[in-house]
Amino acid sequence: MSKIALITGATAGIGKFTAIKFAQNGYKLIITGRRQELLSELANFLKQEFKTEVLTLCFDVRDNEQVTKAINNIDAEWKKIDVLVNNAGLALGLGEIHEGNIDDWDTMIDTNVKGVLYTTRAVAPLLIKQAKGHIINISSIAAKGVYKNGNVYCATKHALDALTAAMRIDMLEHGIKVTSINPGPAETEFSIVRFKGDKEKAKDVYNGYKPLSGEDVAECIFFAASQPEHVNINEIIVMPKAMANMVYSHKV
Ligand code: NDP
Ligand code: 8X3
To answer: What is the mean pLDDT of residues 97-126?
Structure first.
């Protein structure tokens, strides 16, 4: 019987390539995001290309009612989820704390922290019922240090790392694995979203070095998910070769 992976934020970037990677490897997919057209497009592609079954759920991870309703309403067969990838997330703006935009702060905290909590609260009981499963949280190198002007985004990912470590303890007795994937810069829609549609500014982020791609990160996610049952990958930190960390890089 095919395994089932639920991936949040699958309309773009890392989430989209993760859905493709899991489908290539025989998984049935539950893909989520706020843009239904993109979900439908990806679902059609996955069904045609990999002959797999796909369920699309359109919801905003910041809205607990939407999250709970979407998960509770799926059919019993689809509730046998094996892997939850908490990927939906974003950065908004890059600036000093005293000039920060409060709405942007709220959106980052609500998406990157509360969104993961709401989704996990809805899905983890389904994993526990089966006494197996895997929760994979997409954190960031921004959880391993802070960089100039990254303040609130970095804080949300630090919070996520703490939650992941706590979840791993809570899930231990239920037989559920918990993993954190912490990538450095990956060229997706991330910077376009951060700079609110300014594609030139977004492109500049990746000048002088080869960033990660969504596929590179998807490989790490799938690697963690495909280990033998007794093996848990606690954490993967993955960076572009040109960057030692967010401060020291070798750009040309
Ligand atoms: P993208 O902007 O390409 O994709 C983000 C995804 O998240 C989209 O599918 C978007 O879907 C979804 N999303 C955002 N907000 C919400 C919301 N409120 N409700 C539901 N879905 C939402 O970015 P990435 O693929 O790069 O980012 C994915 C994750 O990886 C994020 O958690 C990010 O913090 C993390 N990350 C990214 C890195 C990078 O450099 N790119 C590096 C390290 C970590 P939709 O708009 O349709 O709702
Ligand atoms: C996103 C990548 O470079 O802002 O987490 O840390 S970065």
So the answer is: 98
